[in-house]
Amino acid sequence: MALWPFGKKKDDQPAEASPASAESQSTYSDAPPEVPVEFDTPHHDPVHGDTGPFDGDTVDIADFDFSDFSQGVLDLGSMKIALPRDSQVQVEMGEQGPKMVHIVTKFGRITPVAFAAPSSAGQWAESTEQITQGMIGDGLTADVEQGPWGAEIVGQGEHGIIRVIGVEGPRWMLRMTTTAPHDKAEDLRDLAREITARTFVYRGQDPVLAGNSLPVVLPQQLVAQVQQAMEQRAQDARRAQEQQAQPAPSPEDEQSIEDTSQALRDLADGSGTGTTDK
After folding, report:
1. Any idea what the CATH number is for the domain that residue 189 is in?
2. Which of 101, 103, 117 is nearest to 46 (CA)?
3. Which of 71, 74, 153, 196 is the most buried (most CB within 10 A)?
4. What is the pLDDT of residues 210-243, one digit of tens each?
């Protein structure tokens, strides 16, 4: 699988692919860590570097050619993501509308979220503690592994593996959460890193409280699908209410229905009351 760095300009020859330098060392946690787990955090330059995630406010995605990897770019407003081939976009619906956007692949599901962050680094280190505690609270085993951008949180359960990748940029933090069955978890890990390295984050200048997710704007095609799903949900709810509102038949009504049914059966048998005396 081709990795980074990338050739920036479309006219440039692509840079020689090099695998991520992350070692697969990990630390098992059976209790929430009292201090941040110490892992190397390689220097990442989202503005002048040759690998992402990139700062979309200063780096133009049009300067890159991801056609060897991607079938197109998913524009979510605060993120632009190179979609891998043979993947689909899934919108998770909540009670009030769209809740999450997922990238569905043959290996599993990837959920991208961009957050506002303070100017100083350290938000991902704080998040790793919270995420680890949450996994343990949900009954998962929690590991911390060294990834290309630093610590990655891995939760293992009976039915699959969850991995959370975090990368910090200028006043933003990108988080990729993967969910896969055990036998496909490593493939999804590699693919998620590929996607992360080809993602652009757009923080913008609007004030957003650090730790809050940046707003997501769905593409028009997804908007139409969401509207259709919401309309279908509303119709289902109305039908359910109408069925509940219909009164149960009274004993008299049930007897009347039975009498009518018996009369129809008698007519069909030729034993109705309209007989002729001989």
Report:
1. 3.40.1000
2. 117
3. 153
4. 999 999 988 877 777 667 767 777 777 777 877 7
Asked whether residue 87 is assigned to any structural domain, the reply reads yes
Tell me whether strands 199-201 and 79-84 are parallel, antiparallel or unpaired.
antiparallel
Structural domain count of the chain:
1
CA distances in angstroms from 50 to 6, 44, 160, listed in the order given: 6, 9, 33
Burial of 43 (0-12, 13-18, 19+ CB in 10 A): exposed
The Cα 148–Cα 222 span in angstroms is 32
Which residue carries 């008299």 as its tokens?
Answer: 252
> In this structure, is residue 213 part of a structural domain?
yes
Q: What is the pTM of this model?
A: 0.72
Question: Do residues 164 and 153 touch, judged by C-beta distance below 8 A?
Answer: yes
Which residues sit opposite 100 in a β-bridge? 92
Which of the listed ranges 42-51, 53-62, 92-101, 249-258 does the model predict with the highest average pLDDT?
A: 53-62
Containing 245, the helix (H) or strand (E) segment is: helix 220-245
| SS3 at position 257 | helix
Q: Looking at residue 2, what is its pLDDT? A: 44
